[in-house]
Amino acid sequence: MSKNLEQAKRLFAAGETMQIERFAEHFSDECLYKFANNSAAHSPQEIINGSEEFLQRVTSVEHNIVNHHESGGRLYLQMEISYTCANGAQHTLPCCDALEFDEKGKVKELRIFMDISPVYNEPLPSHKQENTEISLGHEDIKKKVSEMYAALKKEDWKLFESFFHEDVVYKVGANDPVVGPDKISRTLQYIYKILKLTTHNQRGLWKADDDTVIIEMDANYVNKLTEKFVQVPCTDIYRFENGKIVEWRVYPDASQTGFTSWFNK
């Protein structure tokens, strides 16, 4: 088996985990990722950003390589790809990939030639919408949490702090509580020296009462020192007063982060 074919199989195995950050790790910093007629991505982060709808529609994927050919440093693959959709439907579709690797074994070009429309024509299941939406009276709370996470991802600390009550309590697992927006920012800036936040895979959002919501998610990071993907499954609880977050409790599995304590400064 050629080196390029081995690397391609590792790439597809990462894709089959449905963790887009692991898939994107296999690409060089400057790359070309082109899926059929969709817009091209030119970096691992652009690949991650462009995969949101796919991850909403597909729960599993499996690659079956039927044939392969190498010429001029490029690898051509004839495949059949099996998708399981969010509504339970399954499709096995023909595909041809053209790949090129750099000297480090990273993918610098991947062109995917296939018609994936049968997958995208499947309707999303109604229960998925129920799990990710809250009642009309909670739309403002849902929006505020989303906007707060957007500011957090950008590390716009001034905007981030604006979502909190001045006496907000932030508590992660069994660690001591942190009180106040500025101290929350400093705590997260400490964490972000090592971990870069990439995405949140939200699995569900529910209301506990008129002012409290519960969110189950995977928080996805890249370790800045090792450049490895780190996933933190967690449940967050937010309590609001007068439109501001007054309590934020996080229950994470941080075992893979490298932190013995998230507050071990």
Task: Give me a quick take on this structure.
With 265 residues, this protein is α+β, with helices and mostly antiparallel strands. The chain has 9 helices and 11 strands. Helices cover 28% and strands 43% of the residues.
How does this model look, in words?
- This protein is α+β, with helices and mostly antiparallel strands and 265 residues long.
- 28% of the residues lie in helices and 43% in strands.
- The protein is built from nine helices and eleven strands.
- The strands form two sheets. Strands 7-6-11-10-9-8 form a six-stranded mixed beta sheet.
- The longest helix has 16 residues, at 139-154.
- The N and C termini lie far apart (48 Å).
- The model is unreliable at 127-136 (pLDDT under 50).
